[in-house]
């Protein structure tokens, strides 16, 4: 006896070489992290600008007067610390996503993705270390029973007004974008932003006025991250 078994084919499930399974859309959460890093980086710079005691102190200020002024600016110090650390953490995520994105169009032998990611990571580390003295001083300023040497307090004020502003390495990332834009790996306008913003940021970092990079670096990061977030549709559509 012969038994015939039929296997009906569902036409609603495409398969075979003529109907390949579509690749998932590229995630943009890393670019969103970069946008957050740029905005919180700007906030950290603004907050550090409010800690002005080291630049306002006068020769006749007593120790009590100096510490009183720092105590009045504890909220600004706390805001700076929180924003700086958040920015640094988000930059790590952005660096990883940027490396993956650039490697997809730069080719396996290109140094551009590694240079771009390293510039972001180096800046994140600098910003993280720039906030490293906050714990040592902020609680001491707020506690009248803790003695703080005036010269150390003054040094701290100069520290957070300089070290967290050293965004110069981020300029390398911008220049890397420009290099890749010449071969079509990223949008040309992103390359121009990288060339101008990254060039200025790197030159500021090389100069003795390296803290000036703190003005351009966070803004450039914000613009570039926003570009990848909403203006990179050509790549995501490939």
Write the layout of secondary structure elements.
Elements: H1 29-49, H2 53-56, H3 63-72, H4 74-106, H5 112-130, H6 134-142, H7 150-160, H8 170-181, H9 188-206, H10 213-230, H11 233-236
Helix pairs in contact: 1-4, 1-10, 4-5, 4-6, 5-8, 8-9, 9-10
What does this structure look like?
This protein is mostly helical and 238 residues long. The chain contains eleven helices and no strands. Helix 4 (74-106) runs antiparallel to helix 5 (112-130) and helix 5 (112-130) packs antiparallel against helix 8.
Q: How many H/I helical runs?
A: 11
- Helicity level: 55-70%
Helix/strand order: HHHHHHHHHHH
- Strand proportion, as a percent range, falls in under 5%
**What is the approximate shape?**
elongated
Could you tell me the mean pLDDT? 87
Low-pLDDT stretches: none
Number of strands: 0
Class computed from helices, strands and strand pairing: mainly alpha
Rg calculated over all Cα atoms: 25 Å
Main sheet, how many strands, which sense, barrel?
Answer: none
Tell me the distance between the termini: 55 Å
């Amino acid at each position: 006896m012969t038994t015939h078994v039929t296997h009906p084919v569902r036409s609603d499930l495409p398969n075979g070489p003529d109907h390949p399974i579509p690749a998932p859309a590229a995630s943009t959460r890393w670019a969103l992290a970069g946008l957050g890093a740029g905005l919180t980086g700007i906030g950290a710079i603004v907050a550090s600008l409010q800690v002005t005691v080291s630049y306002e102190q006068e020769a006749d200020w007593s120790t009590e007067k100096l510490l009183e002024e720092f105590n009045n600016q504890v909220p600004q110090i706390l805001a700076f610390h929180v924003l700086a650390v958040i920015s640094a953490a988000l930059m790590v995520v952005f660096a990883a996503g940027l490396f993956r994105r650039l490697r997809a169009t730069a080719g396996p032998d290109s140094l551009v993705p590694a240079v771009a990611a390293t510039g972001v990571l180096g800046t994140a580390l600098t910003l993280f270390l720039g906030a490293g003295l906050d714990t040592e001083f902020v609680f001491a300023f707020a506690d009248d029973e803790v003695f703080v040497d005036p010269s150390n307090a003054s040094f701290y004020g100069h520290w957070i007004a300089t070290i967290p502003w050293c965004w110069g390495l981020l300029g390398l990332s911008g220049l890397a974008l420009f290099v890749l834009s010449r071969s079509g790996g990223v949008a040309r306008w992103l390359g121009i932003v990288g060339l101008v913003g990254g060039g200025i940021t790197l030159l500021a970092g090389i100069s003795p006025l390296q803290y000036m990079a703190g003005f351009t670096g966070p803004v450039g990061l914000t613009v570039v991250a926003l570009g990848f977030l909403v203006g990179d549709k050509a790549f995501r559509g490939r």
